[in-house]
Design a protein that fits this description.
With 302 residues, the chain is of the alpha+beta class. Helices cover 37% and strands 20% of the residues.
Length: 302
């Protein structure tokens, strides 16, 4: 990938990314722990209602309120919402500086997958999926992971042995959902949606956070620079251009991520064997070529 795209894949823990972004802002720009209860967009300029008050008038509201976005439900009430992908996922971080695992990997079984991503500080990000009914939970996630994956190939058992024994604290479990259909628009009035709030997708291509970053870059590129003049009249046009630039691309990535997940979730032994044969028979350069639209397909509008 480094040879084809100029850079290798880079895995960054989200707390580190959030801290780096926050550190680049002036302290007064952030209000931590301020719960937003509603955004009134009816009078032409948004009014942000907060739990503690006072109301905050705004030229623009960027809704990054996640996969269960309350603002998305409020402003797109007829949208079908989320679609369960048929799988649950476990995620955890482990310290294993003595294990030499140089590259990311993902192993497919029948209805189960296990991924390993090395981080730069000697830790590993682990994730696993299994086809189960929505809401299926185990009281002991670590034991469940060992039961499902403890006999898989090295280094999976060794990594699972490093998972902390405080199961509920050390292993996250979330059922996998994406949007059942694209939003009709990524903006409404002076509200713009980004990330999972705009286009929640399966994690199978590792593009959820990446597409959110692309959203932010495009939105910042299109919005007025804030040079002290009254540029708020240009915001509606900028948001229309944002929807035009991002809606089709994120929809295509969302659909593709769902299809990859269906391949990885195959449980039928014959179908899984055919899938595995097809993957092994595909030349590496051909497989990489199929990723060009993800890694070379991003362009700033204009």
């Amino acid at each position: 990938m480094a040879a084809r795209y100029g850079l290798p894949p880079i895995a960054v823990p989200r707390p580190a990314l959030a801290a780096a972004l926050a550190a680049s802002l002036p302290p007064e720009a952030l209000r931590h722990g301020t719960a937003v209860t509603a955004v009134d967009n009816a009078a032409g300029r948004p009014i942000v209602r907060t739990e503690a008050g006072p109301d905050l008038p705004a030229d623009l509201v960027v809704a990054a309120d996640g996969i269960h976005s309350p603002l998305r439900r409020t402003y797109f009430p007829s949208h079908p919402g989320l679609h369960y992908l048929g799988e649950t996922a476990w995620r955890t971080l482990v310290d294993a500086p003595d294990l030499r695992i140089p590259a990311m990997s993902e192993t497919w079984g029948r209805g189960e997958r296990f991924g390993v991503t090395p981080l730069s500080d000697g830790r590993f990000y682990l994730y696993a999926t299994a086809v189960v009914p929505a809401g299926t939970r185990s009281a002991a996630p670590r034991a469940e992971l060992l039961r499902r994956f403890g006999s898989w190939h090295d280094p999976i058992p060794a990594l699972l042995e490093r998972v902390g024994r405080l199961d509920s604290a050390d292993v996250l479990q979330n059922d996998l959902y994406d949007l059942a259909a694209p939003l009709p628009s990524l903006h409404h009035g002076r509200i713009a949606w980004v990330g999972d709030a705009a286009h929640a997708m399966a994690p199978n291509l590792g593009q959820g956070g990446c597409q959110a970053i692309e959203d932010a870059v495009v939105l910042a590129h299109l919005l007025p620079a804030g040079d002290g003049g009254d540029s708020s009249d240009t915001i509606p046009g900028a948001l229309a251009a944002y929807t035009a630039a991002r809606r089709d691309r994120t929809h295509a990535v969302r659909v593709r991520a769902r299809r990859v997940g269906r391949l990885g979730a195959i449980r039928n032994p014959l179908a899984a064997a055919a899938r595995d044969f097809a993957v092994r028979a595909t030349p590496g350069n051909l497989a990489l070529r199929g990723m060009d639209d993800l890694f070379n397909g991003f362009r700033l509008p204009g």
